[in-house]
Design brief:
It is built from nine helices and ten strands. By secondary structure, the chain is of the alpha/beta class. The strands form two sheets. It has a six-stranded mixed beta sheet, sandwiched between helices. A four-stranded antiparallel beta sheet has the order 2-1-4-5.
């Protein structure tokens, strides 16, 4: 479960990237975070994960405050950033093992987990290669493997499908559904509205730091009393803001 209460973040003291945000993502749910470029999606995710501190407000993950109980809170989630171009000099296996060390995954179970993840993402033959030799999609997959190696309760994914081939994209969406159906939570941002429509239990639409809508796709249609596509509703909701 993720909870944000009156969270605000400003830059240069004037520009509010996130403005008094209240948001709850319960267990058992895939929550899609939508918004145009510069809407505040990545800033919100960076605050949830503790990379950036809010100016005001509280953020908790499974009841752990990201500011006052940082280590306990960070153990609750796996985070995939919006860029996979990290740790390029490491080999794939070295990176995933490094993440397993950080999260204190026991030696007796990590090998099996690595092989299971590598098998699902078709990465077994690439684990011995340096990440800098990977394609963008392969880098994305190794970042996902590193984020999930400790089997976190909460998944926080920033544009996780970008660059993935169709098979890997299907696999990740399948895993997201499995994770939520097991009573845990998935929070992910995406620009692909069709994916959000098909995959998410609820969506939040943000623009200029404010949540404009939060609910199911059915509720969004009822809000506009319309049967048009999610794309049309999204454009209608954000065009005047």
């Amino acid at each position: 479960m993720i909870e944000l209460v009156h969270v605000t973040k400003s830059y240069n003291g004037t520009i509010k990237a996130v403005d008094q945000m209240n948001l709850t993502v319960p267990n058992g749910e895939i929550f899609g975070f939508l918004g145009p470029n510069g809407a505040g999606k990545t800033t919100t995710i960076k605050m949830i994960t503790g990379i950036t501190r809010p100016d005001q407000g509280e953020i908790t993950i499974n009841g752990k405050n990201i500011r006052t109980e940082a280590l306990e809170a960070k153990r609750q989630f796996g985070y995939v950033p919006d860029s996979p171009d990290l740790f390029l000099r490491l080999k794939g296996l070295e990176y995933v093992s490094f993440m397993a060390d950080i999260y204190e995954v026991p030696q007796e179970v990590r090998g099996k987990r690595i092989l299971e993840l590598a098998d699902r993402f078709d990465m077994k033959n690439a684990l011995g290669d340096p990440i800098q030799s990977y394609s963008h999609g392969m880098r994305q997959k190794i970042m996902i493997m590193g984020a999930l190696i400790h089997q976190p309760e909460v998944w926080i994914l920033d544009e996780p499908l970008t660059g993935l081939d169709p098979k890997s994209s299907f696999t990740l969406k399948e895993m997201m559904r499995e994770h939520a159906d097991s009573g845990r939570s998935v929070f992910f941002s995406t620009h692909v509205l069709e994916v959000a429509e098909k995959l998410c239990d609820r969506v939040g639409i943000i623009n200029k730091g404010k949540i404009l809508f939060c609910g199911t796709f059915t509720e969004l249609r009822e809000h506009f009393q319309s049967e048009v596509s999610l794309e049309s509703l999204f454009l209608e909701l954000t065009k005047h803001e």
